[in-house]
Specification:
The strands form two sheets. The protein has a seven-stranded mixed beta sheet with strand order 4-3-2-5-6-9-7. The chain has a two-stranded antiparallel sheet with strand order 1-8. About 40% of the residues lie in helices and about 20% in strands. By secondary structure, the chain is α/β, with parallel strands linked by helices. α4 (about 75-85) links the parallel β3 (about 65-70) and β4 (about 90-95). The protein is elongated and about 65 Å long.
């Protein structure tokens, strides 16, 4: 689907795009192909697409994957998609709020891949929800705001490193990313975007029962970025236990959360939660 087709469809259907829903549709065919190539799809793959819009990415997904589940919030776009893909037997289209759906209907996503141009306003919570699922998707290939993309792949001591980096990387390893200019979208957003691919870790870094503590630890540690992490963590753990844990891991009592690596947060969680 080219830009001229998009404009014609919107004009014919008298569809006014809504900025609050993050309706910026990727139309550049080269970028769309790069996204699908990054997903490494096979005819047996099950794919989750969130926010298909007018379906330019969907067209490529149904051609390469075994089955596509697409979730679209805008009723007007759902009506168009139902007609456009009426003959497509390997596509299931849902009219729903994707984040609400993921929260409301947890399922086993272990054999699925997420491939989507995510609405900017809900990209982060959607990714966290999937990463924290009992059985998260095995691969994520997502297009989102460049600023958020940088956070997903950042490591300790980098400017973009923070809570989102750690919550996602606990379950996933970054594989690749590339920038997508704003003029590849219609209408062009005010910011550049990027496509990021993340692969589920071969083995979990923490057992399920320790993940809530990890999340609490990370959020507390970054609650005031300029403060020493040890002081912030005293709100949830005894000072003596914290001091012993920091000493065991070779962490300075003055260290800030932005200097602490993912694996150090993991080990700190294990020590603090050990009876």
């Amino acid at each position: 689907m080219k830009l001229t087709e998009m404009k014609q469809i919107l004009a014919t259907g008298q569809i006014q795009l809504t900025k609050s829903l993050g309706q910026n549709f990727l139309h550049d065919q080269n970028q769309l192909r790069r996204i699908v190539d990054s997903a490494e799809l096979s005819p047996t793959d099950q794919v989750l697409e969130i926010g298909p819009g007018l379906g330019p990415l969907t067209e490529l997904l149904v051609a390469r994957a075994g089955h596509v589940l697409a979730i679209e919030m805008d009723r007007r776009l759902v009506d168009f998609l139902l007609g456009h893909f009426a003959a497509q037997t390997n596509l299931t289209l849902l009219h729903d709020d994707a984040l609400a759906y993921l929260v409301r209907e947890p399922r086993d996503w272990a054999d699925w891949k997420l491939v989507a141009n995510l609405p900017y306003s809900v990209a982060s919570p959607i990714l966290v929800e999937l990463a924290e699922a009992t059985n998260p998707p095995r691969r994520l290939t997502i297009t989102l705001q460049l600023e958020v993309a940088k956070r997903l792949v950042a490591i300790a001591d980098e400017e973009d490193y923070g809570v989102l980096s750690l919550l996602i990387q606990l379950a996933y390893e970054p594989v690749s990313n590339f920038k997508i200019p704003s003029d590849c979208f219609f209408p062009p957003p005010d910011v550049d975007s990027a496509c990021v691919t993340l692969q589920r870790r071969a083995a979990p870094l923490l057992p399920p029962e320790l993940r809530p503590a990890f999340k609490r630890l990370v959020k507390l540690g970054f609650s005031q970025r300029r403060k020493m992490m040890l002081k912030l963590l005293k709100a949830s753990w005894p000072l003596e236990k914290l001091q012993a844990a920091f000493e065991t891991l070779g962490l300075s009592p003055q260290i800030r959360a932005e200097k602490v690596s993912l694996l150090q947060f993991v080990e700190l969680t294990k020590i603090l939660e050990h009876p």
